[in-house]
Amino acid sequence: MTVNVVEEAKKKVVLSSTEAETFLSKIDKRWERLVQLVGDYRPVVKHPSKEPYEELIQAVAGQQLHKKAADTIFERFKKLGVDGHFPSPKKIVEMDAETLRSCGFSARKAETIRSIAEASLTGTVPSRKEAETLTDEDLIERLTKIKGIGRWTVEMLLIFSLNRPDIMPADDLIIRNGYRYLHDLRSVPTKKYVLEQSEVCAPYRSIAAWYLWRTAKLPDYVKVNSKLTKLKRSETL
């Protein structure tokens, strides 16, 4: 891929399905095949109008839980607000630990939710309007200072709420396994490997991540990964 193609793409960083698909397909034959197998990119913007503190709390609520259980707990929490509205940061800070635990949150999650609310009141968690003016790294740096919030959680906010086009969640195991499939690797690659290899996907790394997330649903995914695992095991015998 020529430098000119990359530079032209950087001038118009938008979540355009046609532009992104064409760009990724031109990286190499492996990406071209993946785009063809998965099909057209469909933008996923889950909550385009929610405030960042709401998104962070919902992300925490759903961690390490099946969707049905997470949704049930989150609905109980939302009922703590006024007239069906999401509880305000002030109201959350005023809640005691038992109130949060009664929704189904663990003690650790309850503590993290309170930390998010406190950070929203102090301005560490920006309003949506302010968040839209901040860079990806500015938001990651600010929000990961909150106890219990890691980089991956902020990256999900950037991709699915703020619609940022150039995020590669290298800590995500499905993404790493996606690269294992894409590059025929004999083991799950490291975070460093994913970050280095995904540089060629800029400025469409969020779209690249979308494709990598979907490798697990491809017909030959299990077969390829199983074969690579067996190859690795045979080398140690």
From TrEMBL:
GO terms for biological process: base-excision repair, AP site formation; DNA alkylation repair. InterPro entries: Alkylbase_DNA_Glycosylase/TA, Alkylbase_DNA_glycsylse_CS, DNA_glycosylase, HhH-GPD_domain. One of its GO terms (molecular function) is DNA-1,N6-ethenoadenine N-glycosylase activity. Keywords: DNA damage, DNA repair. Gene3D superfamilies: 1.10.1670.40, Hypothetical protein, domain 2 (1.10.340.30). Transmembrane segments: none annotated. SMART domains: ENDO3c. Residues 61-217 form the HhH-GPD domain. CDD domains: ENDO3c. It holds the Pfam family HhH-GPD. One of its GO terms (cellular component) is protein-DNA complex. PANTHER family: DNA-3-METHYLADENINE GLYCOSYLASE (PTHR43003). Belongs to the alkylbase DNA glycosidase AlkA family. This is DNA-3-methyladenine glycosylase Mag1.
